[in-house]
Amino acid sequence: MRGYFGIGVEGVSKQANVGSLFRSAHAFGASFVFTVAADYTRRAAGRADTSDAVTQVPFYAFPDIAALQLPKGCRLVGVELVDEAIDLPSFHHPAQAAYVLGRERGSLTPEMLARCDHVVKIPTQFCINLGIAGAIVMYDRVTSLARFAPRPVRAGGPIEMLAEHRHGEPVFRTPERMALYRTEINSR
Length: 188
Hints:
alpha/beta
């Protein structure tokens, strides 16, 4: 899978659920995890974060939204149950993304929502646990961006195996470079 992602929270209600989120992030291959304006300690989250993700994956603790810094080209995606949000199954994940979730006893602040490039919602009837919501978003990212065998029409596993990846010829900006490349290949 190309690209990278990070995931974090704005504020913290239950540190154990943030630990669970960070453990899932580690399992899904997150490039970094973060908190914004959150009172988060590794010790309090340790019971849920059994992989000790913050020692395995870069962890950033931003004191406020103004301090939040993302890599160049990284898109901030809010996860919030608001009417104007895009339903997660209809969302095309950016190749470089940071997902941010709000505290469980509250929502993303209006300032954080304004900072987001996109806002998605999980199509549920009401809010769900922070760790579960983050895991669903990461699972959706992986299944929509990585290569898997196609889903069968009938119930059960795939009937056909995933085709082996084949690299195509390189793309050149000028016809002269392409001609030179083909000459080199044919002379081998």
